[in-house]
Structures
1.
Amino acid sequence: MKALVWFTDNLRVADHPLLSMACRDSERVEAVYCFDPKSLEEDVLQQPKMGPYRAKFLMETLAELQEQLHNLHIPFHILVGPAKQVLTRFIRQRNDTHLYVQKVWHSEETRQVQSVLSPLDSSVTVLRAYDQFLIDPDQLPYALDRLPKVFTPFRKDIEHQVMVREPLAIPEKRPLDHFVHTGYVDPQFTSIDKTLRSKATDKRTAFPFKGGETQALKRLHDYFWGTDAVATYKETRNEMIGSNYSTKFSAWLANGSISPKTIYAALKQYESECIANQSTYWVFFELLWRDFFKYIGLKHQNKIFAHGGILNKTFAQGRDPEVFNKWITGQTPDQFVNAHMIELAKTGWMSNRGRQNVASYWAKTLGQDWRSGAAYFESALIDYDVDANWGNWMYTSGVGNDPRDRVFNTSRQADMYDPDGAFRQLWLTDQ
Ligand SMILES: Cc1cc2nc3c(=O)[nH]c(=O)nc-3n(C[C@H](O)[C@H](O)[C@H](O)COP(=O)(O)OP(=O)(O)OC[C@H]3O[C@@H](n4cnc5c(N)ncnc54)[C@H](O)[C@@H]3O)c2cc1C
């Protein structure tokens, strides 16, 4: 039997349900990734769908994946173009009997997958699995339509009733006689890769992100055993400067170069070997927030992109291009907001504290359509994740899962979290 695994945002070899299934069930296994240059083009907001820092991170990730798959003797093909055309053609030219595809749930992703799967004939068996969760959908203690509207009951139900599953091991090396070629890489990809990787990051960046599974594991070990920073996470997580105030796992989690179960297993190991405290628990707590937003996305699907959000609320409609340009370039009257927006534009990164402030400022203080803010984040963030981004934007804008519908007082926030002005100084002074 021959199998082809279609990699999307699950760019790793450890704890990879589809790859493990394919290796278990098939004699010959190959892998494919499809890069669509359209993702680099500008959208209605005149921003690329995928900004330069995420694009660079993706290229680094693919290079590592290529090496990992090579080590497992699995040919890895990289195609360039719309999946509907290039991947469909690629599959048709082969005689794989099994195609392994991640389950997705939002319109763009679903459309893309359907455009590839629909034209296939019955000689190809399609196998699908969820890949992104800490708690798998079949472990939820209720049907999805009974998912709590707010986080706390969800967290308590999970904590009391569900055990996180062990991550899957990396599949064993395939027999060498099946590894007749390393895979086809579209020649266009090489030049795209070179251009995207040449993007330099501002030296003030909170973290020198580098894509790839081994980089993710390196960060994990460093944050846990290397520096013990995880043992003080709860105290530092609202800071805004430096590598260790938070885990920085989000960029690798977003493109799937590490799985949440791998992080959880390491956390448990750290707790048993070193220390278990409020801080180590809080990393688990935040990973549950990630799952919560994924389940909100799975339940409400495209409603998370609607103006009234999942609550069908009426909300500010503002769509002033000048206000937008001032916000994204850090030229509003609020220096705390400006410093964060400049950090984002120059690095693709912003702390959670910063994200909450600038989002509240955009949607509530400036009275603009929250979806333009979310779309800008989608473009600019190195760790863009559809459910985390749109879910948090809905939450902050009062059309999602926050029953309190708060407005951030950004000057009070600046006094609390940047009392000596060091963060503003860092980003508002040209260097
Ligand atoms: C307006 C807004 C937009 C956001 N957009 C994204 C996004 O596109 N991608 C993204 O991964 N996160 C997003 N977040 C959530 C959060 O800000 C980031 O996950 C976090 O700042 C990443 O840093 P870290 O990895 O050091 O997180 P840590 O504080 O170390 O947390 C560990 C992990 O828990 C998860 N996590 C933490 N907080 C949240 C949260 N509020 N929601 C969901 N997951 C969380 C992340 O996977 C994170 O890597 C957004 C938050 C806001 C307010």
2.
Amino acid sequence: MLVRVRAAGVDQGTWHQVTGLPYLGRLAFGLPRPRMPVPGLDMAGIVEAVGTKVTGFRPGDEVFGIGRGTFAEYTTAKRIVPKPANLTFEQAAAVPVSACTALEVLRGVEAGQRVLVIGAGGGVGSYAVQLATVFGASVTGVCGPTKVEFVRSLGATEVIDYTSTELSGQYDRVLDIAGSRPLPTLLRLLTPRGTLVLVGAEEGGRWIGGLSRSFGVLVRRPFTRQHLRAPLSIVRTSDLTRLSELLTEGRITPAVDQTLPLIDVPTAITHLRNSRVRGKIVITP
Ligand SMILES: NC(=O)c1ccc[n+]([C@@H]2O[C@H](COP(=O)([O-])OP(=O)(O)OC[C@H]3O[C@@H](n4cnc5c(N)ncnc54)[C@H](OP(=O)(O)O)[C@@H]3O)[C@@H](O)[C@H]2O)c1
């Protein structure tokens, strides 16, 4: 399916894609050069043409999901669903990778549970706070001082500015999206049968990067009654459909901080790397 891109989302994965770091990631992105020379995965757009075996979509349909090399005028679709009519293309393009990841790392959360979201003001975090709230959890968001009001507006019952307040208390689920705290510190924040989910980490060196912490989880898992997870999330059509329903009902809303033109992709990635983005940044061709 050929899709005319109307907007494309940017996430930390884009930086890994264009830099080829950490090196271990090249097993996925391509050795010795990128398999896909054009970066970009998230997108929203209009179906331009369909192959003979395609069912359920036809030219002119408005869709969102993931495609191949979406920082371009056109892309071929990998996984897409119809775009909710109440969303702009820019909003829809901000959904796939970050919201599917948030949904994945919240699987099993029950109403009444206490959830701590570390990195609540970013792409994955902005959806995690909203989704956990929709699932009936009580959410504490952790972010820097410039994002406190933003995280509160997403529905967090409590917001902690990590520059002025130490993390304390016990939570049924801790999502470490920012990825800078040692495992023992995170485990102290968990109830005896709580769940720690390592979502991301941008530290750990050029060879294995944040995956070093995932290995730490594997080593500790047999020796604790707490649940330790470090999932690699993928964008599933079923998850996009579920998110689409929540978006249509207005129960979650994409937080688009900024929209930049295609020529400014490097600026967008730099903003994201410098933690300047509240929620998501989106590219338009
Ligand atoms: N496991 C997977 O499959 C998967 C999927 C998607 C993404 N990820 C990973 O998840 C991570 C986050 O992705 P993202 O797209 O949400 O990135 P993002 O939009 O850059 O969000 C990260 C947030 O963390 C905050 N932060 C930085 N240092 C912090 C600290 N010490 N304590 C609390 N918050 C802190 C940043 O802003 P402030 O400091 O201003 O609050 C920023 O808002 C990345 O490492 C990415 O690679 C993993």
